[in-house]
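Re: the 153-residue chain
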Amino acid sequence: MGFIRHLGVYIVFRRLADQSMIEHSALAIVILVALYFIALGTSSLITPTFAKRFLLGFAESALVHYTELLVRLVVGVAFLIHAPRMLFANGFLIFGWLLIVTTAALLLVPWQWHRRFASKSVPQALRYLSIIGLFSLAFGGFIIVAAVRGAAT
């Protein structure tokens, strides 16, 4: 009987540890996304040629397309998990769902359509690279503040 009780306690603590690990992983991913936006913003303002080349590389091949979709899905789920602990939780929940829904939509279309869309739209957006850079810096900082201040409350 003692063995079963210890096994039950072990399972309960293991589940709590796993849940905590998932929550910590979600927070780490949210912070990495914030740092990505800060890096993109910095690059857009300081080395715009590099930023342009990077942004033009999306949907370049099937591998890049599906890798992007996987990253978007992981990031969306991380925001869904961590948003309740952030400031402006509803906004970040919407952001997470937006990533997941648009990822599902991109998964339903051939990757060549994504490449065609990107090859037409990204060059037009690059005309506003400095504005994109400023927005990326602000959004990255906002995510960090929301994650850290939300965790503190």
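The two ends are 42 Å apart (CA to CA).
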